[in-house]
Each structure stands twice: as structure tokens, then as C-alpha cells.
Design a protein that fits this description.
With 170 residues, the protein is an all-alpha fold. The chain contains 5 helices and 2 strands; from the N terminus they run H-H-H-H-E-E-H. The chain has a single domain (34-161), classed as Four Helix Bundle (Hemerythrin (Met), subunit A).
Length: 170
Amino acid sequence: MSLSRGELLRAAAFTAAACAVPAEATPFQAPPKAPETIWELYRKAKALRTFAITANKMGLPQEARLGRFERKKASVLVPLLDTMTAMAPTLGLPEEQQKRAALLPLLLKGHYLELDEAVKANQFNPYESKTTGKTYEGGKVEREIEEIQETTEEFIALLATAGITEKFKL
């Protein structure tokens, strides 16, 4: 079967039109995810502690550890702090508890600074805390993450006192 010159030109024009991308077209983007709840962020922060322990046992290079912690800081720890900071003034708790709720995000920020220092100093080697008397297989990094967990757990307990709950077990 042979095409005439006119048919060939029409086929070429049709193909070009079908393949052309309109100027206003944008590449596919997944719809934005709903913001994660404080409980989801807590669970992810808890998983970061497991990573601190296994990273040392597996002998992961420092660059890999730093990269992972930087990504998790941006995707988990910063949103956790932002969520706590936003929620704290809205809890409507008795005065002393409300003051504590307002203080916890500030304490969390301090733990983040200590975590940053421990990660940058590559303090993943086993460490015995003088404060707790426990040995941390993931080093001072694991200890700082534990403090982040404890602070978050205290905030979640205040949320429960304020009647803000989710089916969630600490």
C-alpha cells in the first residue's frame, strides 16, 4: 500500500498535532498529601531511633547517616516541632498544664540542637549515659532521639488530657 503525497502530508500533520504539548500543560504531579498528624510524626521519629542503633551496627558511612538525618529532620522532626508549636496554645488546659504544653516545643527545639551536634560529631558509638545509667547502642544520637520521644510523649499525654485523642498506643 502506498500513500499519496496528500495523504502523507495529512498523516504527518495529524501526528505532529497529536504529539504537540499545549503551552499551558504541566507535568503530572501527585495531589498534595494531607498533613501528618502528631501521632504519625511521633511514630516516624521513633523509627529514627531504630535507625541510629542499626546504622552503628551495620557500619554505615557517616555521609549516609548525615544524609538520612538531614532528610528526616526536614520531613519528620521540623513538622513535629511545627505541629506541637501550633497546637500548644489551643489546648485549653488548666494553667499549669497549659504552661507545660507551651514549654514542650521549646524543649524539643533544644533536643534538636543537641541531636544535630551528636550527628555531626558522628556520635553513634555505644554510650553510657550518666543521667539515665543506660547504655545506648546508637550512641549519643540515640539518647537525643530518646529525649525527643519522651518530650513528644509528654505532649501527647497533654493532648489526651485536653480530649484530643487518636487510637494510638505509646
